[in-house]
Amino acid sequence: MNTGVEFAEKLSKAYSETCKPLCHELNIPQTAFDILLFLANNPEYKTARDIVEIRKIKANLVSVNVDKLVNEGYLERKSVEGDRRKVNLICTEKSKEIIQEGQKLQQSFVEKLFEGMDEDTRKALQKGMAHMEANIEKMLEEKN
User: Fold this and answer.
1) Which of 17, 32, 45, 52 fits 65 for a cystine, CB–CB 3.0-4.6 Å?
2) What is the CA radius of gyration of the chain?
3) d(CA 60, CA 66)
4) What number of other Cβ atoms are within 10 A of residue 50's Cβ?
């Protein structure tokens, strides 16, 4: 049986391989693609720091790719009123096509992951994951 780490590594590799053709077609690096989709799929997160902390992408890679996305017109930087150190990253109209194509790819990827899995198994998996997430939250609260 594979460990959780091996599963996570295989999942990440399969996702990257799935994204490669679209990234090539759109002429966008995978990290820049990931940043755009992260911001679009998670509107509660808006900063480069959020990307580093939540997505676990190295800060230098986030910085380089955010600069590239800003320079190419896919992202805008907006200062946060009252905190001049904080800058929100906003997806532009130009980024919408990449985001839409990326979200279609993500949906297809999820469908392939669950291919051949019956509805009861899917529901049991979702229930088990929700239960584990609740346990993780408890563990994190105990640490604080």
Assistant:
1) 32
2) 18
3) 10
4) 17
The pLDDT tens digits of the residues spanning 41-98 come to 999 999 999 999 999 999 999 999 999 999 999 999 999 888 878 899 999 999 999 9
Main-chain phi, psi angles of 56, to 5 degrees:
60, 35
**Predicted pLDDT at 2:** 58
- Is the CB of residue 74 less than 8 Å from the CB of residue 92? yes
Residue 76: strand pairing partners: 90
Indicate the residue type of 16: S
- Lookup: tokens for 47: 């900063």
Q: Where are the alpha helices (DSSP H) in the chain?
A: 4-26, 30-41, 48-50, 59-71, 96-113, 119-143
CA angle 69, 91, 100 (to 5 degrees): 100
CB contact at 8 A, 30 and 16: yes
The Cβ of residue 35 has, within 10 Å, a number of other Cβ atoms equal to: 26
Burial (0-12, 13-18, 19+ Cβ within 10 Å), 89: buried
Whole-angstrom distance, CA of residue 144 vs CA of residue 141: 5
